[in-house]
């Protein structure tokens, strides 16, 4: 039978305060509960030995401490990259990827199961949309991997909402998850260590800009002409480049924060110098950085990553025009670590 208890990680501190108050518990119990969940990383009611037995039992009866089932784990890059396939209680799949380097450990979480955006090169896009994840399910992905890192004597450096899904289509839950993980009385993960990656949902870029948060924003561009971008990223038909770039300028002008652009490089599709010079025109005067990501191949898409010299020529042209640019080392290729965007996470550079 399916677990009908609410997930405890879906609850804000205010909600838990109210619940514990209704149970007749003193206010300090909320702090202990929050500390246990987010500092001690406990995920079972019986780990709360600071609580009387009756309270532990009540917690166990009233709340689920887990809602995701780890289904399959895969590794690549000599064990430095771990991808986990989870299923929700309803059997919906989602993936989380941890990338370790010498100095950083970056976690890529999913905000949805599947994705409705249909980017042609993306394994997740090929699945279609299945479900929005709750804030607690996003938090659960984080805490699951933080427990693993703890065992390895490592800590988490960054969280990127770049896995399955378009985060702006589940924006409230994404922000709630970030807020809860950001709470200084709990997990205390600074806003600047989060990145939200969007395929370019213009109204939300504007909305996000005016929230003036410290959270980083990445926009998946992949093409510098509407004709090509609409082929690769169908949402471009709704929000074409002109509208998208206007929103990007609004974001930078409002927040004074640098924007990242992701560009999955596909051989003979978007790796030409012509595309590069169109891109230069588009990004002129914008405080930004471009990440070039050699395509992570998927079974359903025939595209390939370009040869190194073409990537370098593309990069050089951007740099000639003072557009900062990084070529990302493909990570997780052998385990098909999610979608094209997911490949943008690794911190390494080829040059
Ligand atoms: S690239 Fe991202 S936005 Fe596009 S289909 Fe894949 S998951 Fe969705």
- Please list the strands of the largest sheet in the order they lie side by side: 1-2-3-4-7-8-9-10-11-12
Helix share bin? 25-40%
| The CATH fourth-level homologous superfamily of the largest domain | Aldolase class I
CATH architectural category of the largest domain: Alpha-Beta Barrel
Which ligands does the model contain, each kind named once? iron/sulfur cluster
Average residue pLDDT: 92
SSE run? HHHEEEEEHEHEHEHEHHEHEHE
* Strand segment count: 12
Q: What's the number of domains? A: 2
CATH fold description of the largest domain: TIM Barrel
Measured on Cα atoms, how large is the radius of gyration?
21 Å
**Helix/strand class:** alpha/beta
Largest beta-sheet details: 10 strands, mixed
Instruction: Just give the CATH class of the largest domain.
Output: Alpha Beta
Number of helices: 11
Task: Describe the structure in your own words.
The protein has 351 residues and is an alpha/beta fold. It folds into 2 domains: 8-62, DNA polymerase, domain 1 (Orthogonal Bundle); 69-344, Aldolase class I (TIM Barrel). It has 11 helices and 12 strands. It has helices at residues 13-22, 28-38, 53-62, 123-127, 135-151, 171-182, 202-211, 226-232, 241-255, 273-283, 308-320, and strands at residues 69-76, 81-87, 93-100, 105-109, 112-114, 129-132, 158-161, 194-198, 216-220, 259-265, 288-294, 325-327. The protein has a 10-stranded mixed sheet with strand order 1-2-3-4-7-8-9-10-11-12, covered by helices on one side. A two-stranded antiparallel sheet has the order 5-6. α5 (135-151) packs across α6, α7 packs parallel to α9 and α10 runs parallel beside α11. The longest helix is centred in the middle third of the chain and has 17 residues, at 135-151. It starts with 12 loop residues before the first helix and ends in a 24-residue tail after the last strand. 43% of the residues are buried. The structure holds iron/sulfur cluster (SF4). Iron/sulfur cluster is lined by residues 115, 117-119, 122, 124-125, 164-166, 199, 339-341.
